[in-house]
Amino acid sequence: MIPRVAVHSAAEQVLTGLDPEQRTAVTAPAGPVCVLAGAGTGKTRAVTSRIAYRALTGQISSRHVLAVTFTARAAAEMRARLTALGVAGVQARTFHAAALRQMRYFAPRLLHGRELPELLDSKVRLVTLAAARVGLRTDRAAARDLSGEIEWAKSSLVEPGEYVVAAAKAQRDTPHEPAKVADVFAAYETVKRASGVIDFEDLLRAAVWGIEEHPDVAEQVRAQYRHFVVDEYQDVNPLQQRLLQAWLGGRDDLTVVGDASQTIYSFTGATSAHLVDFPRHHRGAVVVRLVRDYRSTPQVVGLANAVIAQARGTEARLRLELVGQRPPGPEPELRIFTDEPAEATAVAARCRQLIAAGTPAREIAVLFRTNAQSEAYEKALTEAGVPYVVQGAERFFERVEVRQAMVALRAATRSIPGETPLRAAVVEALTAVGWAPDAPPAGGAARERWEALAALVQLAEEYAATPPVLPIGEGAVVERPTTLADFTDELHRRAAQQHVPTVDGVTLASLHSAKGLEWDAVFLVGLAEGTLPTGYAKTAEQVEEERRLLYVGITRARQWLWLSYASARSPGGRNRRPSRFLPQLDGSGGGERAAAGPGRRPERRRNQVVSCRICGATLLAGGDRKLGRCPTCPSDVDEELLERLRDWRQRVAGAQRVPAYVVFTDATLTALAERRPGRPEELIAIAGIGPRKLGLYGDSVLALVGGATVDAICPKESLENPS
Q1: Closest CA to 215 of 109, 66, 117, 112
Q2: What total of structural domains would you count in the chain?
Q3: Measured between alpha carbons, how far is residue 197 from residues 117, 206, 289, 546 in Å?
Q4: 238 CB-contact burial (10 Å; exposed 0-12 / middle 13-18 / buried 19+)
Q5: 342 among annotated binding-site residues
Q6: CA 361, 362, 363, 365: dihedral to nearest 10 degrees?
Q7: pLDDT at residue 444 in the model
Q8: Strands 91-94 and 65-69
Q9: Domain harbouring 133, CATH code
Q10: Could you please report the per-residue DSSP string of 95-157?
Q11: In this structure, are 189 and 248 located in the same domain?
């Protein structure tokens, strides 16, 4: 037996280093506890410490705890942390893993001696068969989208006969006419039963049925599990919530952890409603807000706060304003490029610089809205000699639809006349794999396939813009039209380059697959209207989820953050607007112009995100940006210097016969008296002071800041009697 003194000491050790809010969560009494945990606020530490503290103080037995997470990786991390805290025996599992373990144990009792049926890894094959039964021909992408609709319905506790009404109520973007989807759903259930298999939703439903309909099973499960913890509670769907309620059986020793601002999976059936309504459903619940961000610099935190502060809707009711705890770091950068290839080239160049300066490649990520955007960055990183890995998806040229398209393009070189313009030839060739240049189809997988093939058409347009040349003697050359054979050879060359395996490299990932991860340096690219938010976000709720995607992306960065978008998709293309979610920036940042790559127009002027120099919040209002601080943060203005600056401004304005504000506004004078610049570069960093005013007044202002009197700089006599 462990001595009581040792147990007490171990429990106190668990509390060491916790901030006040984390400590409140850890030491809350038995009963319902809701931990609203912002990004980077140490939620995993808080919940594992709560389990360990309660176990070490004798409040609970670790073997009676079930901690539920959404990924096997998160469950493994939780078990490792609990072991390090001296607590073993806690069951930390995903919903499906926990249900599978229970059903395998109870199957002989529930199924009259039979084992649990085989579990389907994927619905696609059976959905394809079901679609054929109802007269619907589908390719793999269409079958994946139908599978997704069936998963949404089953996770939302919707039966085939209820699908049409439920889909309309949820404003689902269905891959086919809703009644047809319902027919496929019903046929899928029939085919599945005939095959003697179950899917993952059946597994959860069976676990619910086993508990709700069999008192002996319920008694045994509830005797085993008496204390529950649910991580990422904003991602729970109705079926998972039903299983959680079955496990609880009316008891209330439940701790949930979540962040409504990171609700980004509603298309799968996940809903933050359970998190938002937790205090209403659990009277007397302890609600703790974790807002101290230990992951990101105050500059990154300030930008994240500024983006999510504009959120509307249900999730915004639980919006958290994070407070950065790390030392200050570099300001986030906003870059604007002429086109997407220029954007990708610049990102690759900066990745190479970061790696050369000592940042490990594995600590750098390039995040985008859709997987189809990865190709440009795979190409640019390859050409820059920067290794990369693709997170949560295949590399562009390894995707099934792209491989099929390349075969079709090679075959088309023998049937399409050589003089056919390249874009038209590529479009014609892609019709062989079912692609058409009109609006993309409904359904996420089908749309993603369409966009991947559309990316090939865009590559053709870019390739045709730089036609090959032929020598014609005496050093002269002539351009010749780019053929489909040329383009096909170029695609195979790129594929060969990008298929080189890498072990440690820059991460390329969609914003969805980046959830739960973090890096030292993060590039958020393609932040243009139509991409983020996607043009498919039609409702207010869908637009708000797109905003939360950007918030998730921003909060992945620890130290260094780059945000960028291209004014056009391809060189010379139609102009696009920046994402509506970006802060409204003025044009006062840096003024830097950088080459966009060989043969490209230069990058547009860089804008910097300006943060409060006191609290780190992102500054959006022009006056606040000039001051360099929030209006509510304390001012450290030098009143005597401010008075001299006003006197000097009055004399200069009088001599020039202009209003005083033409020289400098009151806000600019206050910023000068607060920030007291000592060098020209510090002076021009103040919003409202550009090169012209630096040339006109820079020396005088710097002299005044240095202690000079107004009379020494501009004597009254010289102003009254100009020569």
Answers
A1: 109
A2: 5
A3: 5, 13, 44, 36
A4: middle
A5: no
A6: 90
A7: 61
A8: parallel
A9: 1.10.10
A10: HHHHHHHHHHHHHHHHTTTPPPPEEPS-SHHHHHHHHHHTT----HHHHHHHHHHHHHHHHTT
A11: no
What is the CA angle 79-81-87, rounded to 5? Answer: 75
Query: For the residues of 275-296, what is the DSSP string, one character each?
Result: HHTHHHHSTT-EEEEE-EESSS
Token pair recorded at residue 189: 């259930």
Q: In whole angstroms, what is the distance from residue 223 CA to residue 219 CA?
A: 6
Give start and end residues of each alpha helix (H) in 471-608. Answer: 484-498, 540-554
Are 277 and 231 in the same domain?
yes
For position 632, what pLDDT does the model report? 63
Is 41 labelled a binding residue? Answer: yes
User: Are 492 and 504 contained in the same domain?
Assistant: no
**3-class DSSP assignment, residue 533:** coil
Q: What is the pTM of this model?
A: 0.72
**Could you tell me if 188 and 232 lie in one domain?**
no
d(CA 563, CA 545): 19
Helices (H), 321-478: 340-356, 374-383, 400-412, 422-430, 444-464
- Is 44 one of the annotated binding-site residues? yes
Residues 205-222 have pLDDT tens digits of 999 999 999 999 999 999
Please tell me whether residues 553 and 667 are part of one structural domain: no
Alpha-carbon gap, residue 450 to 440, rounded angstroms: 6
Find tokens 């996607």 and name the residue.
534
Residue 405: domain span: 400-498
As a whole number of angstroms, the distance between CA 215 and CA 433 comes to: 55
Read off φ and ψ for residue 58, nearest 5 degrees: 80, 10
Specify whether 21 is located in the same domain as 85. yes
Cα distances (Å, whole numbers) of residue 443 to 449, 509, 545: 10, 21, 17
The CATH code of the domain that includes 668 is 1.10.150.80
- Of the three residues 270, 290, 310, the one that is the final residue of a domain is 290
For residue 677, say if its preceding peptide bond is cis, omega within 30 degrees of 0: no
The answer to whether residues 688 and 626 touch, using CB atoms and an 8 Å cutoff, is yes
What pLDDT digit, counting tens, does each position of 229-266 carry? 999 999 999 999 999 999 999 999 999 999 999 999 99
* Encoded tokens for 288: 């703790």
Q: Has residue 194 got a pLDDT over 60?
A: yes
CATH for 239: 3.40.50.300
Say if residues 123 and 115 touch (Cβ distance below 8 Å).
Answer: no
Task: Please name the residue ranges forming H helices in 529-621.
Answer: 540-554
Q: Is residue 607 part of a domain?
A: no
Residue 3 lies in a domain: no
In a domain, 690, yes or no: yes
Q: Please give the C-alpha separations between residue 596 and each of 327, 568, 601, in angstroms, as whole numbers.
A: 33, 14, 6
Residue type, 303: L
Domain boundary pick from 582, 598, 614: 582
Residue written as token pair 């300066």: 357
Give 175's Cβ-side CA count (13 Å radius).
Answer: 28
**Based on the domain organization, do 228 and 360 belong to the same domain?**
no
37 labelled binding-site residue: yes
Same domain, 410 and 492: yes
